[in-house]
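Figure 3 (text version): structure tokens given as input.
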């Protein structure tokens, strides 16, 4: 009776009893591992919890969920998974040895033990791990394995762990701090590998995995001489084959026009440094829905309902990054066609590769500046732009250009930074500005270490932000060349000026909290009431304001 457990899970989740919901979803999955809806229920519940005690069989169930690839974004459940990993007796034992300074004596045994925690290795390969204790442990082990390579060679467990560690470092863009000893050992190891390859010998797999945990394999001058062993097949795909594929795809992406705006050029340069954000798997909707179903599900209030009859929507994504947004939209709306634009060719190539991997054929990618969209000479049923306008010199100019691409009666989803929620970030950006810090990797990593070691409240607050745990996301969070923030009254004025009508917020979790304090159904669409709510709950929009509006005729 797996469906009964699924329904019990849904009821308990609706009542806010998440641990009970997770237990029932787990039972449903154990009885029928092929029933998709159980995994979606589990994923939604895991996004909201951290565990204080072990839960039997749950790490294995989460592993199955992560194997499904499109059922959940790994980063969304990373906190829940990490809390379980840290409750594992083996992990606790290794961590205690690390803090006691005894890990070096039992290095091989401890790495072997960690390699037998499947959820840890799986998560290391899929997303940055937003936990300082784990970061410190992995940074230490990366250095120690490099220093003791000869004693560890031949161990399959060590190789499995090191390969996962190399993928963790690749995904977080090598944010872990490097010591001078690391640099010396790396230079020596690379000389050995180069000589081996020059002599026609392939390097030892562990040596290759060690090098890959400090720099992408594709970026080594001798990469073209490598034959990647089967034990490192996934590492070779991610760090060599995928990178080569993106280089090819860059040349195939059409360009609307040359980018000339000064700030746009600076923003493009920032995002060309790394495809932002780097990701592996993306949670996609359970099934595609019509516009009318989506409007009903998130309780949008429309001024004109004709858009609900649009059965094949044309959608524009203004600033798609590496494709998470465009892919999610293409899977969300039934029979839709998506045009996704971005400034960065590196990000667009990443997005196109991931789109092809998922077999989606309803997304077209183009390099373009939002400011130049008038040259596109097209109008769309839906326009979405999240996390983009606030990085423009004049956000209203960009928003106006997007509105010009929206059909009368069409829907628009916008994401903007909240001034109130980001005050701790504002303070840190001011510190960076006063110190006149550059945005190179070394400077950002050094500043980050100072923040980690700081006792200041606003520094401690930033440690709970997932973006703090990968390099390009750290750059975007604290070192961005351009950032604006908004208040709800400012958004209200912008909507009025652009002829847009507020329809409601996207996040149902925030909406439900709002509804507990605002009982009238009309309150949901009253931005003055939302402004009062945010003043009382200043961290509500720590991610972004994400809201829908409609172009009124």
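Below: residues designed for each position.
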């Amino acid at each position: 009776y797996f469906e009964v457990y699924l329904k019990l899970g849904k009821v308990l989740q609706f009542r806010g009893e998440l641990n009970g919901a997770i237990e029932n979803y787990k039972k449903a999955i154990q009885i029928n591992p092929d029933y998709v809806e159980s995994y979606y229920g589990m994923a939604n519940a895991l996004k909201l919890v951290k565990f204080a005690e072990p839960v039997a069989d749950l790490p294995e169930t989460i592993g199955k969920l992560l194997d499904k690839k499109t059922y959940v974004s790994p980063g969304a459940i990373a906190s829940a998974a990490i809390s379980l990993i840290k409750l594992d007796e083996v992990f606790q034992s290794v961590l205690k040895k690390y803090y006691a300074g005894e890990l070096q004596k039992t290095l091989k045994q401890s790495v072997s033990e960690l390699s037998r925690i499947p959820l840890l290795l799986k998560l290391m390969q899929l997303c940055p791990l937003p936990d300082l204790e784990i970061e410190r442990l992995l940074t230490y082990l990366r250095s120690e394995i490099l220093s003791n390579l000869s004693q560890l060679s031949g161990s399959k467990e060590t190789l499995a762990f090191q390969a996962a560690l190399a993928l963790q470092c690749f995904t977080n863009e090598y944010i872990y701090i490097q010591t001078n000893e690391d640099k010396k050992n790396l230079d020596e190891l690379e000389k050995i590998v180069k000589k081996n390859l020059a002599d026609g010998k392939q390097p030892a797999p562990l040596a290759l995995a060690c090098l890959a945990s400090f720099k992408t394999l594709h970026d080594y001058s001798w990469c073209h001489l490598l034959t990647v062993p089967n034990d490192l097949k996934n590492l070779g795909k991610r760090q060599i084959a995928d990178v080569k594929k993106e280089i090819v795809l860059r040349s195939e992406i059409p360009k609307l026009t040359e980018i000339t705006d000064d700030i746009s050029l600076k923003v493009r340069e920032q995002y060309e440094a790394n495809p932002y954000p780097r990701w592996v798997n993306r949670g996609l909707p359970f099934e595609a829905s019509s516009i009318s179903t989506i409007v009903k599900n998130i309780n949008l209030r429309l001024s004109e309902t004709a858009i609900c009859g649009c059965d094949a929507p044309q959608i524009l994504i203004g600033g798609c990054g590496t494709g998470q947004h465009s892919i999610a939209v293409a899977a969300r709306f039934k029979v839709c066609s998506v045009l996704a634009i971005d400034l960065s060719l590196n990000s667009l190539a990443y997005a196109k590769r991931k789109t092809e991997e998922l077999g989606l054929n309803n997304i077209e990618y183009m390099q373009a500046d939002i400011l130049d969209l008038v040259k596109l000479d097209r109008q769309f049923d839906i326009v979405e732009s999240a996390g983009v306008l606030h990085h423009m010199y004049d956000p209203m100019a960009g928003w106006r250009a997007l509105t010009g691409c929206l059909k009368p009666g069409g829907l628009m989803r916008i994401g903007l930074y909240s001034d109130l929620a980001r005050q701790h970030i504002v303070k840190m950006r001011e510190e960076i500005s006063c110190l006149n810090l550059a945005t190179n990797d070394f400077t950002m990593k050094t500043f980050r270490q100072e923040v980690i070691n700081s006792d200041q409240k606003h520094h401690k607050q930033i440690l709970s932000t997932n973006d703090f745990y990968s390099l390009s996301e750290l750059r975007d969070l604290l070192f961005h060349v351009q950032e604006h923030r908004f208040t709800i009254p400012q958004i209200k004025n912008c909507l009025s000026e652009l002829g847009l009508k507020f329809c409601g917020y996207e996040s149902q979790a925030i909406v439900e909290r709002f509804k507990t304090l605002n009982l009238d159904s009309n309150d949901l669409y009253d931005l003055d009431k939302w402004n009062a709510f945010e003043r009382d709950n200043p961290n509500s929009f720590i991610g972004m304001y994400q809201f829908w509006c409609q172009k009124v005729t």
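The first strand starts at residue 314 and ends at 318.
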